[in-house]
Design a protein that fits this description.
four-stranded mixed β-sheet; elongated; 3 domains; 4 helices; about 15% helix; about 220 residues; Nucleotidyltransferase, domain 5; Cathepsin D, subunit A, domain 1; 12 strands; alpha/beta
Amino acid sequence: MGLFPSHTWFLDSGASFHVTPHRKWFTYSEAKSLGKVRLGDSHQCDVVGIGEISIHFGDDSQLTMKNVCHAPQLTCRLMSVGQLDDNGCNLTWRPRPHVTKWHGMLSQCSCLPRLSFSDFELCKHCQHGKQTKNTHNTHVDSSTRPLDLVSMDVCGPMPSRSLDGVLHFTTFIDDATKKVWVCPIKGKYNVFPTVKKWLASTKLEKGHKTRSFTFEQWR
């Protein structure tokens, strides 16, 4: 509680609502349990009340913030940019020498003018937070000849029985033609006999064997 002066407010573009640990600054408050507030490090703090706080400025003006949450376990006070905007406040940002400083102060830059990613330096904290990711592998195995590659999956038990009274089924999908076979089974113990029967029937139908299988995760 002693990390920051009690009169300091941090303007936070990522905060969903105003929140403070200091009960004495409320001009009006109502004690009630409002759940928890989740912080950026996934730590959670109890919200024990809600009310209004008035901030007085040196030019004799004041700002009255409504729906301020009271979370005694916090170590600082957060003023929500989104909540200020919803209440009709006009926020003006002064330009800084480099946009990286904005990123360091606000974490998010959605409230700034249009920026290019080339304006930013690589942020190791964003890397740790997985905001900067490597591209996914786009290579996908595919085939052009029927039965060269077949995807197989086993599903069940289903919430209701089929007309034959079964709760499980096996699917076979040919990668080349996208043809789908659905074979009801009495249970997962019956998968292997069903696969053998399907392989025999498709070999007879197509005139050649299935070359390879891919297996989905059984559900």
